[in-house]
Specification:
Layout: E1 3-7, H1 11-23, E2 29-33, H2 36-48, E3 56-60, H3 68-76, E4 85-90, H4 95-104, E5 108-111, H5 116-119, H6 122-125
């Protein structure tokens, strides 16, 4: 079963994605975090325990303390996290936001509301 980390400062967005996962009975382990720091701590703990890293990490573009771009850029600089598919999401459809996400090292730019069918396509999970 794929493992996804989702980081968003909006508790409504976190709730919505988990609600859809349950409602549609989507076979995925979803871990939700309200801060980039909390997600990074969870990644560090998994790595330290030699536990499987998530297949995908989705970070919100705009968060008050640490943007999704900063998290993606940080993870891209560490070889141990290279296997994780990194995505940035936003309600924005601005081309410059997509370009900034990809320039930071994201594999994909996803628009909100997030769509599990699109997220779980084989090419998205590699």
């Amino acid at each position: 079963m794929p493992v996804i980390f989702y980081i968003d400062d909006s508790r409504d967005d976190l709730f919505y994605l988990d609600y859809i996962r349950k409602k549609e009975r989507i076979a995925v382990d979803l871990f939700c975090f309200t801060t980039a720091e909390a997600a990074l701590t969870a990644l560090e703990q998994r790595f330290a325990k030699s536990a499987a890293l998530p297949d995908m990490l989705i970070a919100d573009l705009y968060m008050p303390l640490d943007s999704g771009l900063a998290l993606v850029a940080r993870l891209r600089m560490e070889a141990r996290f290279i296997p994780i598919r990194l995505c940035v999401c936003s309600g924005s459809d601005a081309e410059e936001d997509r370009e900034r996400a990809l320039a930071a090292g994201a594999d994909s730019f996803l628009q909100k509301p997030l769509d599990f069918a699109a997220i779980l396509r084989p090419r998205m999970l590699r």
